[in-house]
Amino acid sequence: MTTLDTGTNDLLARTEGHVAVISFNRPEARNALSDAMYAGFDRVLPVIATDPDIRVVMITGEGGAFCAGGDVKGFAASHKSAGTSRPVSAEQGINRLRTIQRQVSLAIRRLPQPVVASFPGAAAGAGLSIGFAADLRIAAERAIIVTAFANIGASGDFGTSWFLPRIVGEAKAKELMFMSPRLSARDALSMNIVNAVLPNEGYEEAALSWCHELASRAPVALQYIKQNINRSLEVPLETALDAEAVAMVRTMGTADHREASTAFVEKRPANFTGS
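^ that's the sequence the OP posted. Answer follows.
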């Protein structure tokens, strides 16, 4: 295991073999978001993006929760003190939120490696939105998932309005945002919000093992697959076909492709090196 520097104890990061693990670490507040977390993501994600030994990224939470989203108690305190402190203008608030959304959700979305959000427990509000930025999501049986924004009179941030309709469809996304139902892990699985549900007992180890299984696959191919699918949501078919041709020829020219072909013939597991 190697520790990665985030600059804060609110957000921890380490590597376990070819998997980078990023953990929200405010368990006393159910891992509610903080300014230090945003800065931590901004610090560590560029390092992860350029590390060829990291093949998969897992984002999770310490202390039994994934992330409760914004610190609602902090919101309430700021409203109470608004009359005694210098107010922040709407423009300042908008610019600040735009910046941190790019530092977190957009940066996660743009990581070249596959990203897995692992929900050991509650995932709510902006925390859930950050989970939506991942490519895949897994959850413990005990996990509870709720959009939560409407419950506090807010419209949503960190990409929910972009990610959620692409995951569940427009009408279901509106329902989940309007009504904020508490979803069990099994509910979320039935809606394709999560890709797998794992037992509570030994969840952390099982989630890491799930990510190691993904990391055992050809990393160059996984990165091109991610690029192709992400691009397909925004471009015409002709453009997607052209990009697929480039990616296919490049991946079939890799040492990993040659190794996979040889392993298939020899009836053994392939040993991918990322070259």
